[in-house]
Amino acid sequence: MSIEQGVHNEALCEELAKSDKWNDWVITTAFYSALHFVESRIFPLKVKGITYESFDIYYPSRTDNSRSRHEARLRLVKERLNMAYIAYRFLYNNSGVARYNNYKISSALAEEARKKLAVVKSLCIK
Q1: Domains recognised in the chain with CATH numbers
Q2: Radius of gyration of the chain (CA)
Q3: pLDDT tens sequence across 32-71
Q4: What is the reported pLDDT for 1?
Q5: Staple partner for 124: which of 20, 37, 59, 75, CB 3.0–4.6 Å?
């Protein structure tokens, strides 16, 4: 994951936000932008003397394999980047709704997602 990929996804998010037509994708692209930003901030990660260069390397090594990739990432954000946790969780929760339950998303919710993305980005890119 990279900051560049996050910026790329964010640019698409901004383009989609220009129309009221794709609010589900505004939220989805905001979430995936944030995902790249938080991973770029958290990794490399040192745990018990072992350095994990990326989430893809870290995830299979965990002893608690009951969590999905997204749940494991949420936990890492809470533990390692707590100030971004509420905004990141908002994006995660609402992107799931937008992708799987209801694509008819209000402009207000899409705008809130863009604000949450800005919070995550500001805490991850210094």
Answers
A1: 3-124 (1.20.120)
A2: 15
A3: 999 999 999 999 999 999 999 999 999 998 877 768 999 9
A4: 66
A5: 37
